[in-house]
Amino acid sequence: MTVGAAIRTDATARPGPLSRWINDGWITTRRNLIKIKRVPDILVFTTLQPIMFVLLFTYVYAGVIDIPGSTYTEFIMAGIFAQTVVFGSTYSGSAMAQDLKDGIIDRFRTLPMSPSAVLIGRTNGDLLINSISMGVMMATGFVVGWRIRSSFLEAVGGVAILLLFAYGLSWVMAFLGMMVRSPEVINNVSFLILFPLTFISNAFVPAETLPPPLRLIAEWNPVTWLVQAARELFGNVPPGTPVGDRWVQQNPELAVLIGVVVILIIFVPLAIRRFSQVTSR
Amino acid sequence: MNFVEAVGLTKTYTPKGAEPVHALDGLDLSVPRGTITAILGPNGAGKTTAVKVLTTLIVPDSGTATIGGIDVLRRPEAIRPIIGVSGQYAAVDENLTGFENLDMVGRLYHLGAKASRARAKELIDLFDLSEAQNRPVKGFSGGMRRRIDLAGALVTQPEVLFLDEPTTGLDPRSRLGMWDIIRSLVSQGSTVLLTTQYLEEADQLADDINVIDEGRVIARGTADELKASVGGQRVELNLVTPDDTVATVEVLRRYGTSEPAVSNDSRTVTVSVASGPEALQLVLRDLEQQNVALFDAGMRRPTLDDVFLRLTGHTTADAEAETVKEKAP
């Protein structure tokens, strides 16, 4: 048996840093795409759950909650979009924890690959899953009567801001996954944090209807800014709806963009640093 | 010339609410080029920590390490292209096929798409992995995963290969298969650092053995040197019937330098002697006079278990028990 073939990594023949970085990011992204293909649960969950939410919320609450100048279906869609993509960003947390548990992070860390590649591949995987979810939810929304009442470009902006927000959150979750190291714990903890975060917001009811302490939390909750931004960009805010006098209420799109940039500035380096130090067991 | 050189490595972990654990406590290590060197020690002796330091996974608290003259701690990015690592827990992606796993590793070594595919195919053939070529690794046996993992460490021909307990948890047949693979690597001149808790494995595979306990090397040499360091030889007799045990022990006492040891089934009796051949002749003569029937009689050198016992004053099993105790809260 000849195990040692004449393959050597020749330092001079190796591609430059940028093309290596792109290669590594693509290879690890591809790994996650194959996983989505091989583990059908992920795809079933990411398509069926949003359909279920759209149907449940629009039909169960439509008669109860009154939205002046519009319908609850029009109101709720941005909320369901936001909730779904926020939860869709948590795969990065449990997946990083699982990779650590399986020891494959050790394999990656002993390869001459760029230390950010695994994280880029991982967060790209979430981005893809969320894109699929968005498509499914929008299609279901159209069926139950949701309509985009803005320009095409604004609608694209609405989809983009939702995906961008979730992308930022994926980096936070990936970092936490490497800190907590247990896929089960990270799932439970993110559930405990993200559920209140999405509910104490304007996602499912107008924030003005919340009791004062919750209302204050809701107004400063980034999910509220995101939902408000998406609602505005999809043209689902009926004309004449009162706007609060806080800056974040008047400029939700900008608030979300600034928030995402801040999150990425903090958590991308933190996650990469953690990746460069962490080892299984 | 030593290809891998580590001097005075220390690493201390402090688990929450427990005493600090000195995983490495001044470990020195050297691996000459083209040889296979074993780190032998019980669970918790620091074997995996040592490998993790040398493979750039963790940074020691103090000490230095070089591979091929390159500083492991200062230039880990220069180390990674020249090493191959295969760990105790097969680091393969469950959802990828055997081929996809190896292809991915090749591409992350920046071999390019074509060369990565060709090398993956080649390794599939070499390691007899055709069964796992096009099926996800999930669902394959531990032996198969371990082979894929080892193949992953050989995607490029690494200048030094680190094998952390390559056969732990494998069934005896898979273990023999793994030994064959490792032997063939060495016959081609690879430099290998292997950790093991199996004395027989170090004896079978390694040119040079470092016995470690509590994070430092307590003895170093070839298997023969280590055994000779215990001194003396043993005469070992296998009896046809346990009825002769008492008479045999009586005879062995005359020529032995220690109290004869009787196995649990009373059929094997062993004693240390000063000079093997001479003692064996005398023992056989006496036993013949007493009509003791033997299945087998011979001299044996001390085993590495004997070595460990002499060096540390405790057996490998004791050392493990101690480690478990230390780790308990």
UniProtKB/TrEMBL annotation, chain A:
Per the record, the GO terms for biological process are: response to antibiotic
Lineage top rank: taxon: Bacteria
Q: Name one GO cellular component term.
A: ATP-binding cassette (ABC) transporter complex
Q: Does the keyword Mitochondrion apply?
A: no
Enumerate the spans annotated as ABC transmembrane type-2 domain. Answer: 41-275
Mention any Pfam family matching this sequence.
ABC2_membrane
Family assignment? Belongs to the ABC-2 integral membrane protein family.
Q: Where in the cell is it found?
A: Cell membrane; Membrane
Determine if Transport is one of this entry's keywords: yes
InterPro entries, per this entry? ABC2_TM, ABC2_TM_bact-type, ABC_2_transport, Nod_factor_ABC_transporter
Q: How does it sit in the membrane?
A: Multi-pass membrane protein
Keyword annotations: Antibiotic resistance, Cell membrane, Membrane, Transmembrane, Transmembrane helix, Transport
- Which PANTHER family does this UniProt record tie to the protein? NODULATION PROTEIN J
GO MF annotations, alphabetized: ABC-type transporter activity
**Annotated protein name in UniProt:** Transport permease protein
Could you list the residue ranges that cross the membrane?
42-63, 75-97, 127-149, 155-178, 185-205, 254-272
UniProtKB/TrEMBL annotation, chain B:
Which superkingdom heads the taxonomic lineage of this protein's source?
A: Bacteria
Q: What InterPro entries does the entry give?
A: AAA+_ATPase (IPR003593), ABC_transporter-like_ATP-bd (IPR003439), ABC_transporter-like_CS (IPR017871), ABC_transporter_ATP-binding (IPR050763), DrrA (IPR005894), DrrA1/2-like_C (IPR025302), P-loop_NTPase (IPR027417)
Looking up Pfam families in the UniProt record yields: ABC_tran (PF00005), DrrA1-3_C (PF13732)
Q: Which GO terms describe its molecular function?
A: ATP binding; ATP hydrolysis activity
Signal peptide: which range, if any? none
Q: How does it sit in the membrane?
A: Peripheral membrane protein
Where in or outside the cell it occurs: the entry states: Cell membrane
Q: Which residues form the ABC transporter domain?
A: 4-239
Q: Which GO terms describe its biological process?
A: daunorubicin transport; doxorubicin transport; response to antibiotic
* Gene Ontology CC entries for this record: plasma membrane
Sorted UniProt keywords: Antibiotic resistance, ATP-binding, Cell membrane, Membrane, Nucleotide-binding, Translocase, Transport
Q: Which family does it belong to?
A: Belongs to the ABC transporter superfamily. Drug exporter-1 (DrugE1) (TC 3.A.1.105) family.
This protein's name: ABC-2 type transport system ATP-binding protein
**Organism field:** Mycetocola miduiensis
The taxonomy runs: Bacteria, Bacillati, Actinomycetota, Actinomycetes, Micrococcales
